[in-house]
Amino acid sequence: MAYAKRGSSRMVMMAWKNMLNNGRTPDLIAYTSMIRGLCEAGMVDGGMRLLNDMLARGDVEPDAVTYNVLFHGLLEGGNLTRAMDLLGRMLDRGCDPDPVTCNIFLKWLVVEGKGREFLDGLVVRLIKRGRVEGASEIVEVMLRKCLAPEASTWEKVLRGVCKRKKVWRIIDSAGWRCGDKSFE
Fold it and tell me: Is 173 exposed, middle or buried (0-12, 13-18, 19+ CB in 10 A)?
């Protein structure tokens, strides 16, 4: 995949086809490298086709790095709608966004002043899918960027982290609420 770094997409495609014709199954690194090469060559649609091929073959599952390469390519091309659609597909497949995913989207959404809203919504989507760990990681990114989640989102994250009813009974019985100074 060294050809991709030099921008010789024709050579890359020949090497890829040769690999497939010889019965070799590409692994995650090969797929991601090829997708990166296509995106860097301005061939994001080719990268998307390769992702679809990867998913159709079913022997390799994309990870956050693979998706991040495509998000970057799509957003560089000004295609926020397709990037958001791909994010939905990523979540549907059980792959959680990572801090890099957040930063890629924030770079484009900050201009529109929608970065906080986007991340908050992402946290809620993950919580609804029962993926508290992924949601907590996004909250951490938000806090590092000084983008505090909505109060209702905080509650959802806390309820997900503190699943045991005993913890919530103690909190509720103490009458604790955000901003209550009696616990300091």
Answer: exposed
Q: How many Cβ atoms sit within 10 Å of the Cβ of residue 28? A: 14
Q: Hey, what are 165's tokens?
A: 């009813």
DSSP string, 170-181: HHHHHT--TT-G
Name the residue ranges covered by the structural domains of the chain: 1-95, 101-184
Superfamily for 1-95? Tetratricopeptide repeat domain (1.25.40.10)
Question: Which tens digits make up the pLDDT trace of 3-29?
Answer: 444 556 677 778 778 888 888 888 999
How many residues are there in the chain?
184
pLDDT in tens, 37-65: 889 988 999 999 999 999 998 889 999 99
Residue type, 95: C
Cα–Cα nearest to 65, from 38, 92, 93, 100: 100
State the Cα–Cα distance between residues 176 and 104, nearest whole angstrom.
37
> CA 90 to CA 175: how far, in whole Å?
39
Kindly report, residue by residue over 104-163, the tens digit of the pLDDT. 999 888 766 788 899 999 999 999 998 888 998 999 899 888 888 898 988 888 877 776
